[in-house]
Amino acid sequence: MALRKITAFLSAAAMLLTGAVPVLTASAEGSRTFTVGFDAEFPPYGYQDESGEYVGFDLSLAEEVCKRQGWELKKVPIEWNSKDMELKTGAIDCIWNGFTINGRENDYTWSEPYVDNSQVAIVRTDSDINVLSDMKDKIVAVQTDSSALAAFTGEDAEESNIELAKSFKELQQVGDYNSAFMNLESGAVDVICMDIGVANYEIAARNGEFRMLEEQISSEEYGVGFLKGNTELRDEVQDTLYDMVRDGTFAKIAADWELTDCVCLTAPETDTETIGESRTFTVGFDAEFPPYGYQDESGEYVGFDLSLAEEVCKRRGWTLVKQPIDWNSKDMELKTGAIDCIWNGFTINGRENDYTWSVPYVDNSQVVVVRSDSDIKVLTDLAGKTVAVQADSSALAAFTGEDAEESNIALKDSFKELQQVGDYNSAFLNLESGAVDAICMDIGVANYEIAARGGKFMMLDEHVSSEAYGIGFLKGNTELRDQVQETLLTMLDDGTFARIAEEWELSDSVCLTRDTETKAETAVQETPFGEKLASICKQLLKGVGASLAIFFLTLLFALPLGLLIAFGKMSKFKPLSWLVTVYISIVRGTPLMLQLLVVFFGPYYLFGVSTSASYRFYAVIIGFTLNYAAYFAEIYRSGIQAVPKGQHEACEILGYSKSQKFFKIVFPQMVKNIIPSITNEVITLVKDTSLAFAISYTEMFTLAKQVAAAQATIMPLFIAGVFYYVFNAVVAFVMDRIEKKLNYFR
Question: Quick one: pLDDT at residue 27?
Fold first, then answer.
């Protein structure tokens, strides 16, 4: 009974005292709140950026859905292992964070799949692991409750993957991918298995320290998971996503997050789409492919192909949308309707049957570019050299394609290595640094790059191959192709086509055909260390307040409550003494993390009472208070019982009342004796505040992990460690001063 009153008192006091603590609040009457649960250490789907905002592909989709529905979006980072409890208790409305459908089909009400994902293996760049079979006798890391883990151990795991897992020295589970990469970098594990979208982000963010094996472990689909049976909310979200697909917003968001090659959501057919004089014409292009399509100094997308597209739209009365895309995702962009065509120096040769083509408009050749001081003068000098080509490019096809000439195949076989790169800027950086010896590329692009880079490079006179450029439309879309082609031919007749070619210095290459696609990619600039440090510290300060709130409120409640519990244990009323003893035994015998889970989720699972996100902070304070009060109670009891029996007898002789005896004689001596033990508990409390992550409350250490995952650096964790050390040093100093003040008899 007493314990129940104490708990009620603590809960009420917490509500009164936490008004300044940032917690989720109910939305205004009349507006609907849509609460998305996500793992804040899972870029690019959900993570914390440098400004401290929660961002990601999935969160961008959720923001757009809420914008269109008129809802208020609540982004709630959750502990991934607690996702089901968060959903069932009503703390969140859905799980939207690269959430795999496969194997969970009957556990949730799902949206339609929107990402087609695969599981891949990541190793260090210098690793001798090149194929999956090389993982035998290696330590392999996967995230707990992840698709990679299911691929090896799940009920639907393929036999080949089960056998592969049995060959590992160890299949190790980690809490988050940032920890996994730190283990991989240090050599504690040999391989990480993970989602391909996250893998691409992490590899790019970690500056070439890691690479991905070509073989894939399994494939899967991502969906939005709602509580089983909640079809109404699912349908509202699903219909909005369909609308976003139809108007191109979904594809744009995917392109913004460089996930175009992964998305798979298509909208049902409607009768509202027409090709008319007022239509929008969306051109897909690679924004790193000058002079055909790129971003100029003013931030505008320009190029020969884009100029042609602008003129076509002007003449037909269309609205031109320039859509930079990832070149490897061009087919997905076209098939989903995100773009109307690929127009960006797009080679017809070898792809004749894959698209509906315009007539050729550029006669292009593949050439070799080397450094100006290189000893490579003719193609045969490439023997024993490292040659770079863009992935899925005409240059690659010239050496490895089905229609590659025998002479080019033999030339390729003489190379030390034929290396594929994502874009030509990377290729030239590799060439300038000496990482590769030559680049094979389109002559038009080569001329532009050589002129733009100040004479550092030269082109060999011999050509590798020739090809034709065209505009690629979706297979069978002859109606749109004919409209564009007819306009191009009109431009040819009146001289406009030749004028545009001359403006872009491509008069020698044109033969009438056109292709445009460009993907804008901002060059990654290394942030100065001082700025990076300041940025991380600024982000972590938001979590410092939460950690301090947990610390001070726990002490405020636990110190007096511990004294009451100590009295209860020393009580001569046996039922009370027994009850308190059991309480202390349970608290000291179970992990604090488990106790926090019970306090937060217990009301729902024990009594059917749904908990809201606003209860999360109160649950943290209640859990910490009940835990530390038990430890303080035992410390108090030892301090009280350490007072010599003669002191009690003297008080009785002097006629002291019980309260006078306690507050004037026993209490001062108890405080003096227990200060060292209290100091240890207080210092432990500083560090234990990080356990609030168990119920998805974001304090400083959780924030540090999120920032570390987003920026792919361990620095935020070190900074958090410095904070804990400094704060504990201050605590130790204060407690030491108090202890010396009380040592008045020494």
Answer: 43
pLDDT by residue (tens digit) across 64-120? 999 999 999 999 988 888 888 889 888 899 999 889 888 788 899 999 999 877 888
β-pairing verdict for 356-357 and 362-371: unpaired
Q: Which amino acid is at 341?
A: C
pLDDT for 13: 41
| Amino acid of residue 692 | A
Q: Phi and psi for 457 in degrees, rounded to 5? A: -130, 160
User: Using one digit for the tens of pLDDT, what is the confidence trace for 261-288?
Assistant: 678 888 776 544 443 445 789 999 988 8
C-beta atoms surrounding 231 within 10 Å: 11
* Closest of 366, 280, 267, 287 to residue 330, by C-alpha: 287
Q: Which of 385, 109, 53, 320 has the alpha carbon at shortest distance from 223?
A: 109
DSSP state, residue 329: G
Answer whether 163's CB lies under 8 Å from 184's CB.
Answer: no
E-assigned strands of 242-384? 280-285, 288-289, 293-295, 301-302, 319-324, 341-347, 356-357, 362-371
Burial of 218 (0-12, 13-18, 19+ CB in 10 A): buried
Question: Residue 109 carries which side chain, given as an amino acid letter?
Answer: T
Q: Give exposure, 24-56, as e/b (b: 16+ Cβ within 10 Å).
A: beeeeeeeebbbbbbbbbbbbbbbbebebebbb
Fold of 529-742: MetI-like fold (1.10.3720)
Separation of alpha carbons 69 and 237, rounded Å: 9
The tokens of 419 are what?
A: 């290396």
Give backbone dihedrals phi and psi of 352, rounded to 5 degrees, phi first: -55, -35
Tens digit of each residue's pLDDT (9 = 90 or more) over 412-444: 899 998 888 777 777 887 888 888 899 998 877
Element (H, E) at 41: strand 41-42
| Closest-CA residue to 59 (of 329, 291, 257) | 257
For 85, residues 6+ apart whose C-beta sits below 8 A from its C-beta are 597, 601, 604, 605
Give me the half-sphere count of Cα atoms (radius 13 Å) on the Cβ side of residue 201. 25
Q: What is the mean pLDDT of residues 633-656?
A: 81
Tokens of 669: 């001596």
pLDDT of residue 278: 59
**At 524, is the pLDDT very low, low, confident or very high (cuts 50, 70, 90)?**
very low
Equal fold, 118-217 vs 529-742: no
- The domains of the chain are located at 118-217, 529-742
Under 8 Å between Cβ of 439 and 424? yes
- Please, which pLDDT band fits residue 28 given cuts at 50, 70 and 90? very low
Query: How many angstroms separate the most distant Cα atoms in the chain?
Result: 121
What is the rounded CA–CA span in Å between residue 334 and residue 614? 44
Pair of tokens at residue 414: 């003489």
CATH superfamily of 118-217: Periplasmic binding protein-like II (3.40.190.10)
β-pair partners for 35:
74
Work out whether strand 72-77 and strand 170-174 pair parallel, antiparallel, or are unpaired. Answer: unpaired
CA 13 – CA 557 distance, rounded (Å) = 9
